[in-house]
Amino acid sequence: MTPAELPLAARATSVGSSPVRDILALTSRPEVISFAGGLPAPELFDAEGIRAAYDRVLAENAARALQYSTSDGDPELRALTAARLTARGLATEADDLLVTTGSQQALTLLTTTLVEPGDVVLVEDPCYLAALQSLSFAGARIVAVPTDDQGIDPVALEEIVVRERPKLLYIIPTFQNPTGRTLSAERRTAVAESAARHGFWIVEDDPYGELRYSGAEVPWIASVPAAADRTALLGSFSKIMAPGLRLGYLRAPERLRRACVIAKQSADLHTSTIDQAAAARYLRDSDLAAHLTVVRSAYRERRDALLDALPGAMPAGSTWNHPDGGMFIWARLPEGLDATELLSVAIKHDVAYVPGAPFFAGTPDPASLRLSFTTHSPGEIHEGMRRLAGVFEQVGAVA
Ligand code: PMP
Fold this sequence. Notes:
Blueprint: H1 10-14, H2 19-26, E1 33-34, H3 47-65, H4 75-87, E2 97-100, H5 102-114, E3 120-124, H6 129-137, E4 141-145, E5 147-148, E6 151-152, H7 154-164, E7 168-171, H8 185-198, E8 201-205, E9 231-236, E10 248-251, H9 254-268, H10 273-285, H11 288-313, E11 319-320, E12 328-332, H12 339-348, E13 351-352, E14 354-355, E15 368-372, H13 378-394
Parallel strand pairs: 1-13, 3-4, 3-7, 7-8, 8-9
Antiparallel strand pairs: 2-10, 5-6, 9-10, 11-12, 12-15, 14-15
The structure holds 4'-deoxy-4'-aminopyridoxal-5'-phosphate (PMP).
4'-deoxy-4'-aminopyridoxal-5'-phosphate is lined by residues 38, 102-104, 128, 172, 177, 205, 207, 236, 238, 243, 248.
């Protein structure tokens, strides 16, 4: 057998690379104004505060910060995170939490502990791509649940649950990726009650909840009593501190959390000791709330710049939403236009977005696209939209 013939596991060849990552590679030329990424704005990272936290941790207790540690995570970071969740309305103890290497790892731990090959997993349609990847690696049979402007449709969910008997539902109820949509409190209750009635797990992924620019907070599904015993809530420091820290957490009922701790031992023993200690130190010494006020106000301005520019750029008959937070606006071109085909024209005009089609586990909508507004100034956003208008003019679709 030549090296090229040595077999890989079937799952390694059946799960493809994320199309968004492939597109991001194409748009890394500095002259491209890209609405494709889903990155926090780097100029807003509190690099000084984070550096000070690492300095203190190393100066005060390097032996601990550089040593192996427990799989559950840094007790202080868990306590401080629990206090933040409690302050936001979800009573949480340090022992309810497992620190993970990004919330992406929490997803992998949950698919490892919950999903047998062939199990049905329900997702919103469209859905976060790396969740689809993680579920595919676990061999899940992914079934898409229809959504509307308000997120998942509880009536469609109920029908599909009765028919498919799912093991779990993966859902991003607040400022969803890719759509920016937020599920109402009534729908959250309906989802929770469906899980209680029919017996399935809910994985509630919430990396964007603290990036709210307008509208009122909506309580987590994990806080609806009907589903409290069957909901795993995922949180992340990526969008509120920095994604390079790779720090996230999982809040789950004890039996599930224990199983995830064991899965984590096999994955990486534990999340970086020094990164956890520095994050805890940052939460204690710095004013994260004040930092978030700055981030929110910049992102609000950028969202508003994009909303302001869209009517002058998009072809007549396009639609888009007005998210109250997060990083994304979801748009739809008029029938007949294909966002994937137009992307190559857009890149020639030095502007980029992500076509919506890859985010669908069900029937893709070729006219849909995702626009991220976080990494450009309002001026750049207007310039990017001017270039996008040129793309549509070139193909004869005029605003
Ligand atoms: N869930 C969703 C919905 C996301 O959009 C992301 C990151 N883009 C993640 C999870 C993973 O975030 P992290 O691992 O950085 O916490």
